[in-house]
Amino acid sequence: MSDLAWFLVGALVKSIIAIVALLTAFAYMTLIERRVIARFQRRVGPNRAGPFGVFQPVADALKMAFKEEILPTRASRLVFLIAPAISVVVALTAFAVVPLGGPTAWGNSSIARAWAPYVADLNVGVLYIFAIASLAVYGIVLAGWSSGNHYSLLGALRSAAQMVSYEVSITLAIAGVLMFAGTLNMVGIVQAQAHQGIWFILAQPLGFLLYGIAAVAEVNRAPFDLPEAEQELVAGYLTEFSGLRWSLFQMAEYINMITASSVVVTLFFGGWTLGSLDGVFGLPFIWYFIKVAVFLFIFIWLRATLPRIRYDQLMRFGWQVLLPLSVLNALVTAAVVAYGLPWWVSGAIGLAILLIVAGAFYATARRSQPKAKRGAGQVMAAPTSVRLVADAPLPRSVDESQTTSVSASAGVK
Amino acid sequence: MSLNIATVAFYVIAIVLVGSSLAVVMLRNIVHAALFLAVVFGAAAGVYVLLNAEFIAIVQVLIYAGAVTILVLFAIMLTQNAMSRTSSPFSGQAWLAAIISVALAAGLIFTVGSSQMALASPNASANLANAINGGGTVARIGQLLYSPFDYSYVLPFEIASVVLLVAIIGAIVIGREE
Description:
The complex is a heterodimer. Chain A is an all-alpha fold. Chain A has one domain (68-368). Chain A has 16 helices and no strands. The radius of gyration of chain A is 24 Å and the shape is globular. Chain A starts with a helix and ends with a helix. By secondary structure, chain B is mainly alpha-helical. Chain B folds into 2 domains: 1-83, NADH-ubiquinone/plastoquinone oxidoreductase chain 6, subunit NuoJ (Four Helix Bundle (Hemerythrin (Met), subunit A)); 119-178, no CATH class. Chain B has 7 helices and no strands. Chain B has helices at residues 5-26, 30-50, 54-79, 94-114, 122-133, 137-146, 154-175. The longest helix of chain B has 26 residues, at 54-79. The model of chain B has no long low-confidence stretch (mean pLDDT 79). Chain A binds chain B through residues 4, 74, 76, 79, 122-124, 127-128, 130-132, 134-135, 137-138, 141-142, 145, 148, 150, 153, 156-157, 160-161, 164, 167, 184, and chain B through 5, 31-32, 35, 38, 54-55, 58-59, 61-62, 65-67, 70-71, 73-74, 77-78, 82-83, 85, 135-138.
């Protein structure tokens, strides 16, 4: 067979394997998430179907399949039908360049390249993931718009604003890694880490944290799940969806989580590499899956721990904290790489910036709290967005700590 | 050479590109038109891939399909009553627009046909791109844009950045409420 034929066969077979694996992972992630969150909340979680509830995903799938799929009368029919499909297709497509292992050890023939453990090896692999991920917002925006429902539309607009805002920071946050690796190729980035003998998290602690936060916002997970904030928007863009189309959105969310975790592992934690154990069959895969599983657990952990942030907080955090820090991180890394300084310089500066920012956050939190209590008297200290009719004068300053004390003291008078 | 996979792919993409471009200007539903605009950008990215300009293709998707069209959708949904969906694409200037479009198309075809820079086929241009880049498109683009040592476009690039910065600050100043 020719090179091209091998390439096509390999790509097809590997795509099918990847899709089946991702969908299975999605099914069991829902179970694991429910069980883990139940543990966090001192409940038991689903444990009826089979031992430890292992057949729960099957039961859920059957339930979803037999639910009525409601088509609202005011819905824009065609767009309503394809919106969930867009979400899932985009989520699956982004996974194509994620390397689950190194190039095969059978040399560089076209056959060996066709069976390497990644669907595609693009020169611009990292950018490809972000480009495809930037299309994920279409699924949500179209779902919200086509539902013919104002809550859905508002949820969709929120999500568009959120995802476009955090995309800027996410790309800048990984710029440091790309400078250290000197390539945009996913396999190349892992090999660069093996070659330099470090995981890039050591050189880029700030970049890792910024990417992690922005990635949670990009996949719309708690505490950034504002598009589906039920207190304000019913269920946001999901409101009118039911049955299998609803579960397609869930599927997209979990697959995006898996892709985001895989990108973290590839960019910051050395991917599949094990040093001298690389050659042992299957071991790099297991090592890789363990790392990805840790980050998936952190996703669940965050959801169980943190309350959802408010919309103005989301925007302020994204543009006034995340973006400047990403630019700073890129600048520092560029200087370190340009002057040929060792990796720990950029790591130390990143940690120092992190400590300063964390200290500043802690100080503001400390400063605002006792003030509110002291000035308040009997009045409860409320966030700026909540205004009682009693305290009439509107706070003029945007700063949280000041406005709380202003409105509180106004209440006392 | 006549019918290899790149040529077939090019014609498929070209048909999609032209078809969705027509859909953008002809559809009565403005949101559908915006969606086809996203398809147009995606198909253009496909043409760049065929020309071995992977980086430009990805950036095309990232910026035009991923951000610009979303902002267009955003503006449509926020400004007009998003639940009433139809509008007429044809105004009284349709004839004028048709004449200008035909003139533009004729000019482009003439230029491409007679230019010395023109290449016989997409394959030839892809091969040329490969020969120039030596595979590493991104590194070559970076050198051409920023290099302080070789011949590069640093000054135009910086001027463009300043113009963009001015536009951004201007937008913030205008949009800011007193």
